[in-house]
Structures are given as structure tokens and as C-alpha cells.
Amino acid sequence: MATNTAENTTLRLKAVLDVLSEAVQSSEKLNAGDVLGAAIAKVPLNEQESELLSGGIPRGHKTLTTATAKLVKAGWLVKGRPGWSITEDGQRATVAFADPAAFAAALDAGTPVPAGTELPAAPAAKAAPKAAPKAAAKAAPKRKKAEAAPAAEAAPAAPVAETQDSSAEAVDQPDAVAVVGDFNTLLGAPENWSPEFDEVQMKLDSADQLWKLEADIPAGFYNFKIALNRSWAENFGAFGLFDGPNHELHHDGGRLVIHYNHRTRDIVLA
Fold first, then answer.
1. Residue/partner pairs of 110-114 with CB below 8 Å, 24 or more apart
2. Is 1 helix (H, G, I), strand (E, B) or coil?
């Protein structure tokens, strides 16, 4: 691990790309919290970085979250509606700038990935297990048949894709979802940080089961949380944590769309 926060953060940014690239190879789905957690596991926080800020989040964690904007600017990371994803250029960057020093220099200088850089090679397939002894091999069909019998009597299982798509439909939605923060008066609410007002309530899109709020607000730095059913009894902050630290929003001004997924507690800004 490096000796200071700036160096550690750069190493963690490289780890973010490495984690996302490995997830592409393994077809594993990771949310932003998983990615940041894995990056910090690879480059642990030092004593200073572990200090908790007023929102209850470690200093180094917040620094890393903010610094991921560099990966977006480089064209290596996309923070979209489904979550975070690595671009093909980002995958190639893990190959072209595999050395931490080269990665840090390229990120700071805005160096493009060299033309012709190949995508990371897929991990080698694991060797097939050795054949079981004959006695075990004879017993195997009986066990398989016994396990399969109940499934044959049950209704056919839905395809995996259908199961995943229907999960959002099956979630028990709250009666109301509010975006509660320090910009609520800009939305027309009588005061900020009050979840009971109509002006801060989101609307549920029945098609994709996402709660949405659209507004036009000035440029600035804002904080907010998600509060359910017009009270603070159940609220979610950064990384979907119950009663967690505030979401932070650096807005350039103009149209802002906030999406909230109650199944995953994820927030997407558009």
C-alpha cells in the first residue's frame, strides 16, 4: 500500500477497473457498493482514511467515490441506470496500464489507451474434475434421479432471464418515496429536509418499477436522502444503506432526473 491518500486513491481507482474487468469476464453482476468495497479490500484504508466523517462514512471511502469521476472523464467507466460498468476502452486500460505507476501517469495526463491494445484475455477454464470411482459412478444416477423426481412433478421453472426481469415487479413497493435534501425549497416545498411535502414525492413508473423525480435546479453541490412513506422512519442514504450517509450531488445546473430502485436501493442520476 502507498504511503499517502492520493497514492492510495489512485491504486484503488485501478482496482475499481480491475474488479469491473474481472466481473465482465465472469459475467458477475456488481453494484457500485460491491465495486468500491472490493477496491478497498485490495487497497485497505490506513488510519487517517478510516476516520469517519460526519455522515458516518470513512474518509478514504468518500475520497474514492469522488475520485471515480476521473475514470468517467477518461472514458473508462460509465455510471448508468443499471449501475456502474466498464467500457471496452476501460478494459484495455487494465492491459495497457497494468503497472500502477503507468496507470497513475496515464490517468493524470489523460493518456489515451494505445491503439491496438487487446481486451483482457478471458480466464483459463478450470480443469474438469477427475472421474469418480466406479462404485460412486454407479450410485450417481440413482441420486440424480431421486433429486430430479420432485422437479418433474412441479410446474416448469421460469427461465433465468424471466426470473430476473420479474423480480422488480414482485417487490413490495412503499406507498410513497421522497427525495429529501437541501434543495427541496427549489422544488417548491415549504422547507428542506421534510419528507411529508407533496413537492418532494417521486412517481412510480409501472413499466420499470422505478421511482422518478424530475426537476430543474441551479448548479451547485447538494445533499439528499430517500425517505419512505412521508417520514424518516425508513430512509436510505449512500450505497443504499439504511439511515446511511447523505447522497452527494454535484449538479451543473438545469434538468435533473433522479431514479430510485426500491429493490436494490440504488440511486441513478440522469
1. 110/74, 113/89
2. coil
pLDDT per residue of the chain (270 residues) written in tens, 0 to 9: 556 899 999 999 999 999 999 999 888 877 777 888 899 999 999 999 988 775 567 888 888 988 888 998 999 998 765 568 899 999 999 999 999 999 999 999 999 999 999 999 876 554 445 544 444 434 444 433 334 334 434 344 333 333 333 344 467 899 999 999 999 999 999 999 999 999 999 999 988 999 999 999 999 999 999 999 999 888 888 888 888 888 988 899 999 999 999 988 888 887
Which set of grid coordinates corresponds to residue 69?
469521476
Q: How many CB atoms lie within 10 A of CB 209?
A: 16
What are the CA-CA distances from residue 223 to residues 50, 173, 179 (Å)? 22, 24, 10
Instruction: Kindly state the helix (H) or strand (E) to which residue 212 belongs, with its residue range.
Output: strand 210-217
User: Model's pTM, two decimal places?
Assistant: 0.51
Contact between 24 and 91 under an 8 Å Cβ cutoff? The reply is yes
How far apart, in whole angstroms, are the C-alpha atoms of residue 113 and residue 111? 7
Question: Three cell numbers at 41?
Answer: 479490500
- The count of residues in the chain is 270
